[in-house]
Amino acid sequence: MQETLHIASLLVHARPELFAQVKANLRLLSDLELHQESPLGKLVVVIEAENESQILKRIDQISNLPGVLNAALVYHEILSPEGESQ
């Protein structure tokens, strides 16, 4: 790895009746993976970015998607080029 990599995990809570639409909109965003989900409208999202500002921008974008009630950061790790977590 030649650059620092930031990995962040979010819990996204969406309106259950708009959950499919929220997931479809999330799939349009780059550097983002959808993981576990609940039929109650909860979804684990993982973001990979070069810096914190990209993560904050993505969280803001997710929060503003139609049907999203909340997007909360639950984990953030920084991987350095030397292979050390920060």
From TrEMBL:
<protein>
    <recommendedName>
        <fullName>Chaperone NapD</fullName>
    </recommendedName>
</protein>
<dbReference type="InterPro" id="IPR005623">
    <property type="entry name" value="Chaperone_NapD_NO3_reduct"/>
</dbReference>
<keyword id="KW-0963">Cytoplasm</keyword>
<keyword id="KW-0143">Chaperone</keyword>
<comment type="subunit">
    <text>Interacts with the cytoplasmic NapA precursor.</text>
</comment>
<dbReference type="GO" id="GO:0051224">
    <property type="term" value="P:negative regulation of protein transport"/>
</dbReference>
<dbReference type="Pfam" id="PF03927">
    <property type="entry name" value="NapD"/>
</dbReference>
<dbReference type="GO" id="GO:0005048">
    <property type="term" value="F:signal sequence binding"/>
</dbReference>
<comment type="similarity">
    <text>Belongs to the NapD family.</text>
</comment>
<dbReference type="GO" id="GO:0005737">
    <property type="term" value="C:cytoplasm"/>
</dbReference>
<comment type="function">
    <text>Chaperone for NapA, the catalytic subunit of the periplasmic nitrate reductase. It binds directly and specifically to the twin-arginine signal peptide of NapA, preventing premature interaction with the Tat translocase and premature export.</text>
</comment>
